[in-house]
Design goal:
Helix content: 40-55%
Order of helices and strands: HHHHHHHHEHHEHHHH
Number of domains: 2
Strand order of the largest sheet: 1-2
Strand content: under 5%
Structural class: mainly alpha
Number of strands: 2
Bound molecules: protoporphyrin IX containing FE, 2-acetamido-2-deoxy-beta-D-glucopyranose
Number of helices: 14
Length: about 325
């Protein structure tokens, strides 16, 4: 009997150990190797957001732009050098993605505690969740164990990331290609309840589109002229720009989406009922957003012996 128990334990232990290296992410991944990691990440995020609230939006977007380009593997963090061109200068990222220094600083603190253990890709996933929570949004459990890529692809970044000129079917196809549903697409777009966009990304919408409330368009035209001032910023959610709430959808129902792609979700098409539901029922949105983030965070992770744990997020070891 005792012998049987021991055998059973050994079999289960082997199964558990196999699972840990078998391409499965787990919230407990660092519980023996670096139990303090999630708290270090959270403290770093809180410090960064206390200094500048917008950084929460920037960190959320950083994780998204990592995951949509060959999976959540920190490929976006690799710096260009004389012999290597990565994703940082790809058109959706260049002069647009922010937060690299915040991640580098957190990585340095985590390395001090447990050198060579915690991946940059996992830090991005935790920082996105912690940012949303700090700004009043939903929480979710982040599974861990992603490893960092040995390469990056500027071309893939330009092909895989959605653009603000996209129509509804372009958006649906783009998310579907990542294994995300139409509903996931509508829910994850609610990330635009925080953060800012540059004039160059919404100019055509405020001058040329008809699915926009006229006084809203005029007020934006005051500082985003037909030409020039490309980098002047407007909040993606004018009502509550620093609060993670459902007001993005309330804006859409009132034809006050900032980007062309935002208003595509509500202008007499198949996403309208979902948008109305999120505008009326904040809890439904917050729950769907959290579910969507879990799915997005698990796109094609590198696990087992694939990739590496980078020492510095900007450079392969
Ligand atoms: C649905 C397709 C999407 C399109 C076309 C899109 C496009 C954009 C554009 C053009 C900007 C402004 C960039 C700039 O002016 O430099 C932006 C900002 C932002 N996006 Fe998206 N996005 C999409 C989905 C998402 C998703 C899924 C997330 C996260 C889950 C996200 C999070 C953000 C955040 C937080 C910002 C503000 C960043 C900051 O203030 O630093 N977006 N997006
Ligand atoms: C604080 O935020 C400002 C922008 O508002 C930025 O220039 C500065 O580098 C940040 N400082 C720290 C320590 O993060
Ligand atoms: C990226 O932006 C910089 C300006 O900050 C510009 O000089 C450079 O040409 C851009 N790179 C690409 C590849 O577009
Ligand atoms: C990195 O990716 C590029 C573009 O896909 C490829 O040409 C290059 O050979 C890769 N480098 C390594 C070291 O795998
Ligand atoms: C959406 O845009 C694509 C091109 O990006 C076009 O082929 C398609 O016809 C458009 N769909 C609708 C419904 O306008
Ligand atoms: C609006 O559309 C016109 C005609 O297609 C085009 O010439 C112009 O560049 C577009 N954008 C703006 C900001 O007016
Ligand atoms: C350039 O960056 C790549 C990717 O991080 C790295 O493999 C390579 O060693 C770097 N080269 C130099 C000279 O730093």
């Amino acid at each position: 009997m005792a012998a049987h128990k021991t055998t059973l334990c050994l079999i289960l232990l082997a199964a558990c150990l196999a699972a840990a290296t078998d391409g499965k992410l787990s919230p407990e991944y660092y519980s023996t190797t670096c139990p303090g990691a999630p708290a270090i990440v959270q403290a770093g995020v809180v410090a960064a957001l206390k200094n500048e609230t917008r950084m929460g939006a920037s960190l959320l977007r950083l994780h998204f732009h990592d995951c949509f380009v060959n999976g959540c593997d920190a490929s976006i963090l690799l710096d260009d050098n004389a012999t290597f061109v990565g994703e940082k200068t790809a058109s959706p990222n260049n002069k647009s993605i922010r937060g690299y220094e915040v991640i580098d600083k957190i990585k340095g603190q985590v390395e001090k505690e447990c050198p060579g253990v915690v991946s940059c890709a996992d830090i991005l996933a935790l920082a996105a969740r912690d940012s949303v929570v700090y700004l009043g949004g939903p929480s979710w459990e982040v599974s861990l164990g992603r490893r960092d890529s040995l390469n990056a692809s500027k071309e893939a970044a330009e092909v895989s990331l959605p653009e603000p000129t996209f129509n509804l079917s372009d958006l649906a196809v783009n998310f579907w290609a990542q294994g995300l549903s139409f509903r996931d697409m509508v829910a994850l777009s609610g990330a635009h309840t925080i953060g800012m966009a540059r004039c160059t990304t919404f100019r055509d919408h405020i001058y040329n589109d008809s699915d926009i409330e006229p006084s809203f368009a005029r007020s934006l035209q005051q500082f985003c002229p037909p030409r020039g001032h490309d980098d002047v910023l407007a909040p993606l959610d004018l009502r509550t720009p620093a609060q993670f709430d459902n007001s993005y959808y309330v804006n859409l129902v009132n034809y006050k989406g900032l980007l062309h792609s935002d208003q595509e979700l509500f202008h007499g098409d198949s996403a309208d009922p979902i948008v109305r539901n999120y505008a009326d029922e904040p809890a439904v949105f917050l729950e769907d957003f959290a579910k969507g983030m879990i799915k997005m965070g698990e796109i094609k992770p590198l696990t087992g012996s694939a990739g590496e744990i980078r020492k510095f997020c900007g450079k392969v070891n």
